């Protein structure tokens, strides 16, 4: 466009509308587009509720006059997901230069749109004159090469018939190495890692987006489903051993607890559940009043878990009693990790918060972008991917946190995987990266679709889900 237009016609900025509003005849509604533009670009003359409703229309292609028809629906029922919700809240915050109130965050994730609109009407924020600048994705950015380059090749792929956003689990069963993963098609598959051959296939009642957990005996997989149930799957006989029902969908990965006799996990029903692995009977249930997608961390008879509204909790492994809470200013999707005898929690606004095991704040480290990645412990560091398209290592020296960029990969990154002396990570645009710990690029491969799954590795192979409906097995070979 800049090569075509005369200089005096260059736009000051470009607004991106995710879906164009259409008329009842299926054509672009130009009046609705004009209304969206006028509302969006006059922040000094519009209210907070106007801003919020305009963003809803912009994200989903509604006319402002249609909002009354969708008020009883939730954000997710009109096509939203957790990432879109955070992006919308961040854009809303950037428009007004202030933090989103907790009531609005809670309403967006847990209530219908009418509750969201009611919360927005009560908000008073000063408009921000500065428009947010989004860094550009540059997956062709120049990276320094590693001395130990590897070639990445696709060994096999398996079609699960819908998007595979779930992170796979790799494990050994008897003499075979297996990989298990779920998809939006409701299919949950267990495959041979060498050949991609199907070992077991389950068709569950709804979407499977969470990562599974392997039972101590190695014969069962526990995985949550959007129908609100936690399933125990016997992949040796292709049978459902038991299911445990919660009141809402489950995206949280379960973790073994109580000396591996039970699993613990969170649900959108705002509760933490502890369930016996033998028969799925409830051990305890704790109401935390906010939905949970972050995987729990179990350590020293305590369970550390966070909510999508940003509350960090420590629970007794034995009884489920809440021992302490800490309120983060923004949602938490990534799992915590331990470092320097503290618990580190990543929130969406780019803060890594260090809390003692007693719930006292040690320090706060700010990153330059949003954080959806979990923190991965590697020796004396925590490795993570950031929305600013960089891969970071965080170290603590004399009680002071220090972050350094391992590599600028030019892509929004999922949770990394550490494999010996290298980091394997996926970018949302579809790239897989292998980087050494000095930041040298060892190898890169582009898959056909977007990636929101995290990479896992086993015996020189990488496994990752893709939005072209496939689970990929990628080989690494020395060049």
Automatic annotation (TrEMBL):
GO biological process, one term: amino acid activation for nonribosomal peptide biosynthetic process
Swiss-Prot/TrEMBL keywords: Phosphopantetheine, Phosphoprotein
Pfam families linked to this entry: Beta-prop_ACSF4, PP-binding
Domain Pyrrolo-quinoline quinone repeat: 160-474
Gene3D superfamilies: ACP-like, YVTN repeat-like/Quinoprotein amine dehydrogenase
Domain of life: Eukaryota
Residues annotated as transmembrane: none
Carrier domain residues: 53-105
Name this protein carries in UniProt: Carrier domain-containing protein
Native species: Tenebrio molitor (Yellow mealworm beetle)
């Amino acid at each position: 466009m800049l090569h075509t237009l005369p200089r005096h016609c260059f736009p000051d900025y470009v607004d991106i509308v995710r879906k164009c509003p259409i008329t009842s005849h299926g054509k672009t509604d130009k009046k609705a587009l004009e209304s969206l533009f006028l509302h969006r670009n006059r922040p000094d003359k519009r209210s907070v509720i106007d801003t919020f409703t305009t963003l809803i229309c912009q994200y989903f292609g509604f006319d402002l006059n249609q909002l009354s028809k969708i008020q009883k629906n939730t954000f997710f029922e009109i096509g939203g997901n957790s990432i879109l919700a955070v992006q919308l809240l961040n854009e809303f915050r950037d428009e007004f230069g202030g933090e989103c109130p907790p009531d609005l965050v809670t309403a967006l994730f847990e209530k219908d749109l009418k509750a969201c609109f009611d919360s927005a009407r009560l908000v008073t924020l000063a408009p921000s004159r500065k428009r947010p600048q989004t860094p550009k994705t540059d997956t062709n950015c120049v990276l320094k090469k590693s001395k130990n380059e590897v070639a990445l090749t696709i060994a096999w792929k398996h079609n699960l018939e819908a998007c595979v956003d779930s992170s796979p689990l790799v494990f050994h069963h008897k003499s075979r190495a297996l990989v298990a993963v779920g998809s939006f098609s409701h299919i949950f598959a267990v495959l041979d890692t060498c050949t991609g051959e199907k070992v077991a296939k389950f068709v569950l009642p709804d979407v499977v987006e969470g990562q599974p957990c392997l039972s101590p005996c190695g014969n069962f997989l526990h995985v949550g489903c959007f129908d609100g149930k936690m399933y125990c799957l016997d992949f040796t006989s292709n049978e459902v051993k038991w299911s445990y029902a919660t009141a809402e969908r489950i995206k949280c990965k379960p973790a073994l607890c109580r000396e591996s006799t039970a699993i613990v996990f969170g649900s959108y029903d705002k509760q933490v559940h502890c369930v016996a692995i033998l028969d799925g009977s409830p051990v305890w249930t704790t109401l935390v009043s906010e939905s949970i997608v972050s995987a729990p961390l179990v350590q020293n008879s305590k369970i550390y878990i966070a909510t999508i509204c940003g509350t960090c909790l420590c629970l007794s492994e034995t009884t489920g009693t809440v021992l302490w809470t800490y309120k983060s200013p923004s949602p938490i999707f990534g799992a915590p990790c331990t470092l320097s005898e503290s618990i580190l929690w990543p929130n969406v606004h780019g803060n890594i918060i260090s809390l003692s095991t007693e719930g006292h704040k040690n320090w706060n480290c700010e990153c330059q972008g949003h954080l959806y990645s979990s923190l991965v412990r590697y020796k004396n560091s925590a490795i993570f991917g950031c929305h600013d398209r960089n891969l970071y290592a965080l170290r603590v020296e004399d009680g002071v946190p220090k972050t350094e960029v391992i590599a600028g990969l030019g892509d929004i990154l999922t949770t990394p995987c550490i494999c010996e002396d290298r980091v394997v990570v996926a970018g949302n645009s579809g790239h897989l990266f292998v980087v050494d710990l000095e930041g040298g690029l060892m190898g890169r491969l582009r898959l056909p679709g977007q990636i929101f799954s995290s990479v896992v590795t086993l015996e020189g192979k990488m496994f990752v889900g893709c939005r072209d409906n496939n689970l990929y097995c990628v080989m690494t070979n020395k060049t």
